[in-house]
Amino acid sequence: MKLIEVTTPANQKEFIEMAVRLYKNEKNWIRPLDADIEGLFHPETNKLFRNGAKAKRWLLQDEKGQTIGRVAAFINPKMKEKQPTGGVGFFECIDNQEAAFLLLDTAKAWLQSEGMEAMDGPINFGERDKWWGLLVDGFSEPNYNMPWNFPYYQKYFEDYGFKLYFKQYTYMRPVQNLGFDEKMIQRANAIIANPDYSFRYIQGKELQEKAPDYFMTVYNKAWARHMGKSIALKEAQLMFGKMKPIIDPRLIYFTFYKGEPVGFFIQIPEINQIFKHVNGKMDLIGKLKFLWYKTFFPPNKMLGLVFGVVPEHQGKGVESAMIISYDKMSGKSSFPYKTIEMNWIGDFNPKMMRVCEQLLATIYKTHHTYRYLFDRDKPFERHPIFD
């Protein structure tokens, strides 16, 4: 077997295409957009490089020169851990332990040479909401920017010595004809009856002009301390700008207290139901296909991206009230979405798991994020629980 570092345009193309060949007979695998993967490894499209991040990629060939595996390793200075921790990801391999271990050995050796003391994987070279975790249960079609892999990958990661750092759950529930936990309804009604609270979705000019500011305000209070970073208004505006081609105002919902934003949930149509038809390319043909399917065969599933309530309004029933009030709108027969999937809920976030359970949602998919400590005698610790 022969390792080749990805350094040329031909290598970069092969890094994408080998996965396409590997999964060609898997009906539930959806080809990611090529640009979404390749863009992560270039300073022009990934600003992490400007902050000192590093990355390397390798291809693995057999004796006949056929590509049988790939892997990437990276160092993200924004990852704040007890020990310097790098990442390994975009791992793909034939069902061969020797090949799999050689790829992981290669990533490990480079990370050690860069002063890392541990590696997490399989993870993304960027934010946690994309390409993060190993699928271990629920091998149906993946949601947008979520990984799909062969079941045998789990054995290779665990036999190599990776240990479970945390689980990521995707919850699912029907949009219509399913009730809620009775205690949740009681808490919700008490808040809904309070005239200081109001609940509404955002539409028209307010969606682009005001919603980013609302989002930034709530996010920085509700999530920043857990996620390790706050966001600036410009970042929030950029996020809403990127969502504009696919956004549905019926899926952006906010809670206000005396006119000030205190909660939200942001959802989008599950666009992998469209992207699966474009074969990874958003060239002219891909864009035409995207518009065709978006217009005539739109998604019937919505994807929950982020949910948050500012700390001073948590535990009062605001979460429940926001969901119950939204359900009254989405329960209309004209509402086109049949199911909702709530993506990326870590098992270190029991509060959010309880919210999903009160929604009578069930776990639909499970991903694992693993950690490998280079010092094998060092005590292993799982991800801390959010309070």
CATH superfamily of the largest domain: Gcn5-related N-acetyltransferase (GNAT)
Query: CATH topology of the largest domain, anyone?
Result: Aminopeptidase
Approximate helicity band: 25-40%
Report the oligomer. single chain
Determine the structural class based on helices, strands and strand pairing: alpha+beta
Biggest sheet features: 13 strands, mixed
Query: Any idea how many domains?
Result: 2
The count of strands amounts to 13
CATH class bucket of the largest domain? Alpha Beta
Rounded radius of gyration (Å): 22 Å
- Based on the structure given, which CATH architecture of the largest domain is correct? 3-Layer(aba) Sandwich
In whole angstroms, the N-to-C terminal distance is: 48 Å
Low-confidence stretches: none
User: What is the N-to-C order of secondary-structure elements (H for helix, E for strand)?
Assistant: EHHEEEHEEHEHEHHHHEEHHEHEHE
| Spatial shape | globular
Mean pLDDT reading: 91
Share of residues in strands: 25-35%
Task: State the helix count.
Answer: 13
Please explain how this structure is put together:
With 387 residues, the protein is α+β, with helices and mostly antiparallel strands. The protein has two domains: 131 residues, Aminopeptidase; 162 residues, Aminopeptidase (3-Layer(aba) Sandwich), CATH 3.40.630.30. Helices cover 33% and strands 26% of the residues. The chain has 13 helices and 13 strands. Strands 1, 2, 3, 4, 5, 6, 7, 8, 9, 10, 11, 12 and 13 form a 13-stranded mixed β-sheet that branches. It is globular and about 70 Å long. The mean pLDDT is 91.
